[in-house]
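Input sequence (344 aa), recorded before submission:
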Amino acid sequence: MFRSSTVMAALLLSIPLFALLNLAMGSVYIPFGDVVNILSGGDANSEVWYNIVLKTRLPQTLTAMACGAGLSVAGLQMQTVFRNPLAGPSVLGISSAASLGVALVVLLSGALGGGILTQFGVFGNTALTLAAMAGAMSVMALIVYLSRKVESSVTLLVVGVLIGYIASAIIGVLKYFSSEEDVHAYVIWGLGSFARVTGGQVYVFTGLMAVLLPLTMLLIKPLDILLLGEQYARNLGLNLNRTRTLVITSAGALVAIVTAYCGPIMFLGLAVPHICRALFATSSHRILMPATLLCGASLALLCNLIARLPGFEGALPINSVTALIGAPVALTVLLKRKHKRKEL
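Predicted structure, token format:
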């Protein structure tokens, strides 16, 4: 119990620390004292610093926190409901559907109109967000509908994988008939970015996540019961179809919103639940759900900080940074499972 409290406190303290580093570090270094002064409403020593902190780095920091927390919680829910340690937030094809929505806007409109749409700044960014949301939500509605009709979680998992393949195939065809500029614009979107959410969008995005994340905590007890096995869960009176639908809806909504605003962010949702299981040495969701939320937010801030390290022009693709952290975790899980099977 003491260990869990200590680790939880460390995670909680790491968030403001990494957030402050995100606000201060970058291509332009801003002293910590000036950052605190700007955030507290004081006079800034430089108008440029004021704009960098409040209009660029603060929205990016808030976005990273919300994105990391949302994807991590969604990943934990997916791994529990499908009883698969390698299940991630994108396992049901929701991220692929969001990517298809963006591809239809960027690639199809480019093929029809000579790539004019991608040249519009604010309009183009809003169109991408709406297209990604439409694609993600439509597939999420289909998955939720099927979850009520299909008894087997494995069948539902296969359906999600097939949806992902279909979306990828359509995107491939669109790429073939698109111009270089449009394909490049789509590839850049697919790399993911916390800097894409700007202006008033950051308040909408963080507001949605602030509402959805606390609601996921209502599923702690059903998720703990699911760990006991489906037969035992039925004996305890748990409605499996209803619980599965609620969990998929919760995780799907988080993934859809994050993908729509930030693009397909990889590996955070897969890696963070395993990191928390290792840190807390427990499978109880009473501990794992809040821990995963905090760890996801902290790790996303760390990835964003690495992507914007001084010395880099602009920023590294965020998916490249998250993959460097998430891929070794996934590989470790695979090797451990293989080792356990050999022992048996």
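Checked by second reader. The radius of gyration is 21 Å.
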